């Protein structure tokens, strides 16, 4: 177990660029040029020169307007995309609540889906077996265990996904605005679960537009604007600055 | 602060576990959605073998291959189905799994390796068909059957190599998907499947054909029933080519991975 003040996420001078236009032509030279090549006019930097580190047990809210790189930052921390500059170091396991319903297979039953998803995130069969009932109870899906995934409502799908990922027991949790779906009662249940995890000493990385949620979970805020990390401060301060910047 | 700590599992263990889960997933999907399941994976090579058997033993006086021709055919046709299936599916590997790739952190080579494993399992499942025909036609097995695992090992190396090249490049150049299909069809006739490597000797193409890595691999498989089909020169070239292709594949994959993740 890491000491309480151990650094778990280190982001150093990270930059990532995307193509402005999906249809702009690619050539082989570009593709193989590696990290060193210069940026071209058809590209833009979604994030650049972003540096920060996160201690174990911290809860961080990422704030910024649409398209300022919040979700990209979260994906970099989840290591599902790789930076063009700088380095991202994540020292502990991550439970990513990103695009959680993605990758489910329509023909598989709920039971198979739970085993597959948890397994791909690194749980062993025995661990899943021990938590299975808990996961099903949380998702309130007990009556549909053998129903093919495709016949479930979209709310049910989100419930299963959240129930599985939040039971991963990983020390770091990443939450993208996934909880916007689902009814109010379930959302509240999810939030209580996140609080429970926080109380258990987990590290949280939270992306949201909702000020109330950010205040509820986070102690520290990262404010992204124009692909830069503009402010890294206590959440109240960050929200204040954000409100000031976005006021008309 | 009590934080239940899961026993740390090595990345290699996690990788193997994920590989197995994905393969199981695909097998399960196949068997839960189709009534004939297993039957389909052997029906395709059987129909093909039936057609070639008819054309080359009944219609034409056949100057190629060995007797019994059906066994001669299946020895190369079944592994060809493996190669063909894995390579043509790897053109869609990243596009098909895009959502999963965007949300789970597993080394990305798994999307190619999983296909090679899946098609490999189907290949193993079809071997009883070969044995059944060998028994029915009274073909004799020779000690060279022990070379079968070597053929499998080379084919795994080759197929993973080709998959690692094809899978990421298709993400950027969609035309490549059709180009690969065409190349595979060409390769079917350019490889010793309906004929044997020795049949090319009168044409003077034997040396050239050895540079098709599949030639050496198929000659290893065939040697089980037809020792005269075994050509060590072709096997050596094929081993070298397979390793080279794998090295190129790993390089291409590493170089393009960053861009692939942004694109999907």
**Beta fraction of the residues of chain A?**
25-35%
Assembly state of the chains shown: heterodimer
What is the overall number of helices of chain B? 11
Mind telling me the CATH superfamily name of the domain at 7-93 and 207-246 in chain A? P-loop containing nucleotide triphosphate hydrolases
What is the molecular shape of chain B?
globular
The helix-strand sequence of chain B is: HHHHHHHHHHH
**How does the helix and strand content of chain B classify structurally?**
mainly alpha
Query: What percentage of residues of chain A falls in helices of 4 or more residues?
Result: 25-40%
What would you say the CATH architecture of the domain at 7-93 and 207-246 in chain A is?
A: 3-Layer(aba) Sandwich
Q: Based on CA inertia axes, which overall geometry of chain A fits? A: globular
Average pLDDT over all residues of chain B? 88
User: In total, how many beta strands of chain B?
Assistant: 0
Number of strands of chain A: 9
> Which structural class should the secondary elements of chain A be placed in?
alpha/beta
Largest Cβ-defined interface: A-B, 45 and 37 residues
Q: What string gives the helices and strands of chain A in order?
A: EHEEHEEHHHEHEHEEH
* Alpha carbon gap, first and last residue of chain A: 48 Å
Tally of separate helices of chain A:
8
Largest sheet of chain A: 6 strands, mixed
Give the spatial strand order of the biggest sheet of chain A: 5-6-7-3-8-9
